[in-house]
Amino acid sequence: MDFLKNNLKQFIISGACLLFFTTCILLTSPNNLFAVSQDDASISTKNIPLYKVPNKDAEIRRREGGDTGAGSAGTSRGLSRGLSRGLSRGLSRGLSRGLSRGLSRGLSRGLSRGLSRGLSRGLSRGLSRGLSRGLSRGLSRGLSRGAISDGLSNKVLLSQLHDASDDKKDEAHEKKEGGGHGGGDIDPVHGGPATPDLMAPLASLQTGFTTNPQPILWWYISSGYQSKVELTINEYGVIEPVLETHVIGPPEEGISRIDLKEHGVTLKPNVEYEWFIVIVPLPSERSADFLGSATIMYVPPDDAFKQKISGATKEELVFAYAEEGYWYDMIHNLCDLISNNPKNAAYRKQRIALIDQVRLGKVKNYDKKVIESIQ
To answer: Which residues of the chain fall below pLDDT 70?
Structure first.
């Protein structure tokens, strides 16, 4: 018992020190998640909608393919996911394997000798290996997937594959000369459209709300990709996907829509769903997938809010939904306004401001370029 108490005491002290160290890194970083950027602080005019996050302390659920340039969110997400998953998996696996192996070996050699050695070795090895492997793997995977952005590891893998495929480069070059796929350069590995630098859902960091059980989702891609993009929607806690299909990417950089009504998907009220957009460059190597994802929840509005927005114009709806914390309705109405009025710089400036508020970084450069071209 004394041995067990000592090991548990060491584990608690080590965990507390690690959490303190991680918190210090996040809070002292000049670009930490809790800092307010100059862009966010300057948004005070009545012409700019201010999105009210329903729960600022909720877990970050959005992922982007590629580097958005807003690294603080990725760092926080990577560290938190890496530490939590690493610790939980490391401890559970270490303890279970250590105890089971120790007990089984101990029982075979003798109950008294086996139990004492089995428990002592199982606990000591389980705790030590669980902590060391859990922390090391959790931090390394968390930082690589989060701080360096979820998409960078994919891009590194793709670049390595590109360098090792000289024969396919020549073949792809011939396809490009002959026309090949539209909407972007030819990928030298698989001969299809090249993977874009950035792909991201137009979504809030945390789970976004909608008043519509069949909402329209919007997503950004940095270059043309006229090929299949996988679309998957999962209901929280359910193994089978709600939807597994594909859409065809746009011919050039831009923001596109996905109408869930067209796919026959109806969201249940107050249930969280996660939606994925995925480019699969190498079907045989799914670790090279290039993906973005976000979460959504259908939250039926109360009668007071229904009355408030009845008869409102699309411009007024953008502000009303932002104030009430309905991200998906707000961004849909604004994107719809831009689609119908592509040369309206005021609408695009509103979208730039909202993109800044949810830290989508480089995505705003698309609207900035369009504004410069029409002025």
So the answer is: 1-45, 70-192
Domain count, the chain: 2
Domain assignment of residue 235, given as a range: 36-69+150-375
Statement to judge: residues 44 and 167 lie in one domain? yes
pTM of the predicted model as reported, rounded to 2 decimal places = 0.62
Do 175 and 144 fall into the same domain? no
Q: For residue 286, which phi and psi values (nearest 5 degrees)?
A: -70, -10
Q: In this structure, is the dihedral angle defined by the CA atoms of residues 347, 336, 204 and 366, taken in order, positive or negative?
A: negative
Determine contact, residues 54/186, Cβ cutoff 8 Å.
no
4-52 pLDDT, tens digit each: 555 555 655 665 555 555 555 444 444 443 333 444 344 445 789 999 9
Provide the pLDDT for residue 326: 98
Q: Looking at 126, 148, 170, which one is the last position of a domain? A: 148
Same domain, 187 and 155: yes
Residues 20 and 102 in one domain: yes
Element (H, E) at 338: helix 327-340
Closest CA to 53 of 235, 230, 220, 203: 203
Tokens found for residue 297: 């929840």
Q: Is the dihedral of CA 32, 33, 39, 44 positive or negative?
A: negative
Residue 233 host element (H or E): strand 228-235
Co-location of 24 and 88 in the same domain: yes
pLDDT at 69: 81
Residue 35, C-beta contacts closer than 8 angstroms, at least 6 positions apart? 29, 72
| CA-to-CA dists, residue 306 to 209, 241, 300, 302, angstroms | 15, 31, 10, 6
Residues 124 and 160 in one domain: no
Say yes or no: 105 and 211 in one domain: no
Spatial distance between the Cα atoms of 1 and 3, rounded to a whole number of angstroms: 5
Q: Write down which residue in 100, 126, 148 finishes a domain.
A: 148
- Token digits of residue 313: 């114009």
For every residue of 33-44, DSSP letters joined together read TTSPPHHHHH--
In the three-class reduction of DSSP (H, G, I as helix; E, B as strand; rest coil), residue 245 is classed as strand
Q: Report CA torsion sign: 96, 98, 99, 102.
A: positive
Same domain, yes or no: 44 and 59: yes
Determine the 3-state secondary structure of 360 from DSSP: coil
